[in-house]
């Protein structure tokens, strides 16, 4: 067991596992702690903003209601009619005045959509209503708390609060938000009654609902003396001594008794809004985060174990294979080659091992064949002494013998063959020649061809002397002319005379050497195969066989000398002959001369 623990595989596995698991746990704890702090701060800021926003909504709403009461108490016609004694008026005048007061109240009533009723209560007991058509006024309203509170307001608006039904109309069962103000005779400045307005409380309740941070939040609207104006719970609100003396823009956030209390004062109505949220509502997302981490952390640890196993095995397995191969090499098996795809260092180690084994095998083979090499050295030296000049001298001797016997044509053929052998067997000096040399050797080759074909081929040469000194790869024209004769002209009928055109044309900054024949032409399939071979020199053709070696060899030499933008091109049609074009660049010296000449 201890020996297995000392293996690189197990040690790497344990190292990776502990490191990755520790990182996962540390990151999870830091993330949870940081998330907790940020979440509580975010909730506090959000609640603070909600309270501030709600306080602003209350101010706007109460300001609009205050303006509404002022539009009634400052209405000169309404106050004048209310201040007139009805007992001394004729019945018709009293009826007209009552209808005028009702119309004024109706116009104010329909100016807003949230009003339930407007009630004007004179001190002499006269009541004017607008709202519910079937209203029944409480006869004991003068003894109610709300009436006394309005009377005590001394002309200021009295905010009565939210009630489950109308405080004066016994037929109105809808919840109402009630407020009022005392009416004064503007000329004598004496009280003549009060105005009571009841509005729908949904705006107040919606503003309170906006303060709910969680599902169990409790929201209170508290008036003077701790009187609850409206609340979402029957529980008593908490007392906040810190609210005393605070301005309307101040928002208080306190944590007490496993709950968060947020409060703010409304300076316009001298009310306070209080929101109480238990910590369990605030920690819902934290609990979800905790459960998420409890699930994810074990999964990540298991994933870490799997990654540690894979990584440690990817390092140890190639080394184990290398050890097995080394043991085989110890037994004398030097033909083994290890193929491993692993880390760069391991791959380099395996490559070095393969190179070492291959080198050892080569040295052993060298030792084995050293004796054979020594025995063959003398024979090899004798063979290398065979000089190609023997062949040239023999051909020259045959030429002179034919010349003495009057065989001039056959002698010319032998002499041309000798020149061809001399030209093709010398590849020194980089295998570059001038176009002049190629043309001369082409003449020797055509001499042989015309003799063999008995004059059935006519050669037309159109190459200007100005191109003769251009350097091209050796044996450029001869294989092209050989292909034209072998595949294009020889298959012609004996009575058809073949023509071979060789010309040089300047095209921009390039020179184009063209070898064209009027032979049997080339099929489309053959043309595709030849073009593929030229586009992929050194590779197999489309059918998978090697071919066109001479053309491919020439194409590679042209690419090597001039670049891949130059080389061979082939065109042709069946029965219309074939044309091969060699494109090479013009010499730079000539381009410069042309520039200065112009």
Automatic annotation (TrEMBL):
Topology relative to the membrane: Multi-pass membrane protein
Name of the protein described by the UniProt record:
Sensor histidine kinase
Q: Which organism is it from?
A: Paenibacillus terreus
Is Kinase a UniProt keyword of this protein? yes
One short Pfam name that applies is: HAMP
The reply on keyword Ribosomal protein is no
- Residue ranges the record marks as coiled coil: none
* Keywords linked to the UniProt accession: Cell membrane, Kinase, Membrane, Phosphoprotein, Transferase, Transmembrane, Transmembrane helix
Record EC number: 2.7.13.3
Q: Which GO terms describe its molecular function?
A: protein histidine kinase activity
- PROSITE patterns tied to this protein: HAMP
Alphabetized Gene3D superfamilies for the sequence: 6.10.340.10, Histidine kinase-like ATPase, C-terminal domain (3.30.565.10)
- What are the subcellular locations of this protein? Cell membrane
Q: Which residues form the HAMP domain?
A: 313-365
PANTHER family per the record?
SENSOR HISTIDINE KINASE YPDA
SUPFAM superfamilies named in the record:
ATPase domain of HSP90 chaperone/DNA topoisomerase II/histidine kinase, HAMP domain-like
Q: What class of enzyme is it?
A: transferase
For this protein's source organism, the top of the classification is: Bacteria, Bacillati, Bacillota, Bacilli, Bacillales
């Amino acid at each position: 067991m201890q020996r297995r623990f000392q293996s690189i595989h197990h040690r790497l596995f344990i190292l990776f596992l502990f490191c990755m698991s520790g990182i996962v746990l540390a990151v999870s704890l830091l993330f949870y702690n940081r998330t907790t702090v940020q979440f509580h701060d975010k909730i506090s800021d959000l609640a603070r903003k909600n309270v501030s926003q709600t306080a602003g909504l209350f101010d706007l709403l109460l300001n609009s209601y205050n303006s509404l009461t002022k539009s009634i108490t400052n209405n000169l016609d309404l106050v004048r009619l209310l201040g007139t004694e009805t007992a001394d008026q004729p019945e018709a005048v009293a009826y007209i005045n009552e209808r005028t007061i009702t119309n004024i109240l109706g116009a104010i009533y329909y100016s807003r959509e949230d009003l339930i009723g407007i009630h004007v209560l004179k001190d002499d007991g006269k009541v004017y209503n607008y709202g519910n058509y079937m209203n029944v006024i409480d006869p004991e309203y003068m003894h109610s708390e709300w009436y006394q509170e309005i009377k005590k307001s001394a002309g200021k608006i009295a905010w009565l609060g939210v009630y489950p039904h109308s405080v004066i109309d016994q037929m109105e069962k809808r919840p109402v938000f009630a407020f009022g103000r005392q009416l004064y005779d503007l000329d004598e400045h004496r009280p003549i009654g009060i105005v009571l307005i009841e509005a729908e409380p949904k705006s107040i309740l919606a503003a309170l609902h906006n303060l709910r941070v969680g599902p169990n939040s409790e929201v209170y609207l508290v008036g003077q003396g701790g009187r609850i104006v409206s609340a979402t719970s029957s529980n008593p609100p908490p007392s906040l001594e810190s609210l005393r003396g605070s301005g309307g823009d101040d928002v208080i956030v306190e944590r007490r008794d496993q709950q968060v209390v947020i409060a703010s004062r409304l300076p316009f109505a001298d009310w306070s809004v209080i929101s109480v949220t238990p910590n369990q509502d605030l920690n819902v997302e934290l609990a979800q985060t905790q459960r998420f981490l409890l699930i994810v952390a074990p999964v990540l640890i298991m994933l870490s174990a799997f990654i540690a196993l894979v990584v440690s095995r990817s390092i140890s397995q190639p080394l184990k294979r290398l050890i097995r191969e080394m043991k085989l090499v110890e037994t004398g098996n030097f033909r083994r080659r290890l193929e491993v795809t692993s880390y760069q260092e391991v791959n380099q180690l395996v490559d070095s091992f393969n190179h070492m084994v291959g080198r050892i095998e080569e040295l052993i083979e060298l030792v084995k064949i050293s004796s054979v090499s020594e025995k063959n050295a003398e024979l090899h030296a004798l063979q290398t002494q065979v000089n190609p000049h023997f062949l040239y001298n023999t051909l020259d001797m045959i030429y002179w013998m034919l010349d003495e016997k009057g065989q001039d044509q056959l002698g010319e053929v032998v002499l041309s063959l000798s020149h061809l052998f001399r030209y093709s067997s010398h590849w020194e000096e980089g295998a570059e020649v001038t176009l002049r040399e190629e043309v001369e050797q082409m003449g020797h080759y055509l001499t042989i061809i015309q003799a063999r074909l008995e004059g059935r081929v006519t050669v037309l040469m159109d190459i200007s002397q100005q191109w003769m000194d251009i350097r091209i790869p050796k044996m450029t024209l001869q294989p092209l002319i050989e292909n034209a004769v072998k595949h294009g002209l020889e298959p012609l009928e004996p009575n058809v005379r073949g023509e071979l055109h060789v010309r040089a044309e300047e095209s921009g900054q390039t020179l184009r050497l063209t070898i064209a024949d009027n032979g049997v032409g080339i099929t489309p399939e053959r043309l595709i195969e030849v073009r593929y071979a030229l586009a992929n020199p050194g590779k197999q053709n489309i059918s998978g066989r090697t071919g066109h070696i001479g053309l491919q060899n020439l194409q590679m030499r042209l690419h090597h000398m001039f670049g891949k933008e130059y080389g061979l091109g082939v065109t042709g049609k069946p029965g219309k002959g074939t044309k091969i074009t060699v494109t090479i660049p013009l010499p730079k010296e000539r381009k410069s001369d042309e520039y200065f000449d112009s």
